[in-house]
Amino acid sequence: MSGGTLDVVVLAGGLSHERDVSLRSGRRVAEALRGAGVDVSVHDVDARLIPTLRELRPTLVWPLLHGATGEDGSVRDVLDMLGQRYVGAGPRASRVAWSKPVAKTVVGAAGVHSPRFVTLPQSLFRELGATAVLETVLEGLGLPLAVKPSRGGSALGVTIVRSAEELPRAMVNCFAYGDTALIEHAVEGTEVAVSVVDTGDGPRALPAVEVVTDGPYDYDARYFPGRTEYFTPARLTTDVADRVAQAAVAVHTSLGLRHLSRSDLIIDRDGVPQFIDVNTAPGMTETSLFPQAAVADGYDLGKLYRSIVEAALED
């Protein structure tokens, strides 16, 4: 495909809480692909999308949608029904990865470590009583805790809880973004993001990006410069760097992902990578971690993105 004309539709926007990040990701990828000689148009996800795709019949679609709809497999189901090829995981793998508890269970079976966790729907607090449930959580998991929606990204609704008094407010914050909470023991250690790319010769990990934040690595810290410092490659020993790379590839493979992904891990005090979350449509903004890792590995982003497009066309 490297010698032919490529016509790519980038999907960006949508109606999730992460709309702005998606739009920024879409613009960056479109610019890089144009620089690599690809014809690109960017389209939102709205009532005009299906007629537009039927009319344009692009070579490929690249969904750069974050949050619900974009990462839960539903848009990819529609693309499959249209007979449209696209970048990234298929619907089934997307649904598994989108649910943090399910993803943790699957990657755990593949031998990847993950912090102890429970998954609790909002209805359970009404049925059993919030006080009793939260006391049981504290006894079972201990402090500190990470409270987050069971589905979602960009750290929206995520709170690190260091005292029992902080837990009720963390639950309220979480349930503002979803009706089911994942509560896990908050592992102390080095936070890294490890991107995986597969351009046709098997998945390989890019250099880990170490994330050092002034406070929690929340939405503001992720997408607005100033509060977060990144080290690419991460400041790890060769042995630990190999472990995090192996863990990220195992996550990618066990979940059945394609073309690209990014796993967030915390390296605990024993040097063991603990799986936190996976992104099937990693952010591609100016502060996002996938492009940082790719550049650190010597890639020209336009050429890499074109290679991903070409690999998707071979699947």
TrEMBL record:
The keyword Cell membrane does not apply. Mg(2+) 1 binds at residue 264. Its EC number is 6.3.2.4. The active site is at residues 18, 154, 288. Pathway: Cell wall biogenesis; peptidoglycan biosynthesis. Mg(2+) 2 binds at residue 279. The keyword Nucleotide-binding applies. Keywords: ATP-binding, Cell shape, Cell wall biogenesis/degradation, Cytoplasm, Ligase, Magnesium, Manganese, Metal-binding, Nucleotide-binding, Peptidoglycan synthesis. It is an enzyme of class 6 (ligase). GO terms for cellular component: cytoplasm. It is found in: Cytoplasm. One of its GO terms (molecular function) is ATP binding. It catalyses: 2 D-alanine + ATP = D-alanyl-D-alanine + ADP + phosphate + H(+). Residues 104-310 form the ATP-grasp domain. Belongs to the D-alanine--D-alanine ligase family. Cell wall formation. PANTHER family: D-ALANINE--D-ALANINE LIGASE (PTHR23132), D-ALANINE--D-ALANINE LIGASE B (PTHR23132:SF23). This is D-alanine--D-alanine ligase. It comes from Cellulomonas carbonis T26.
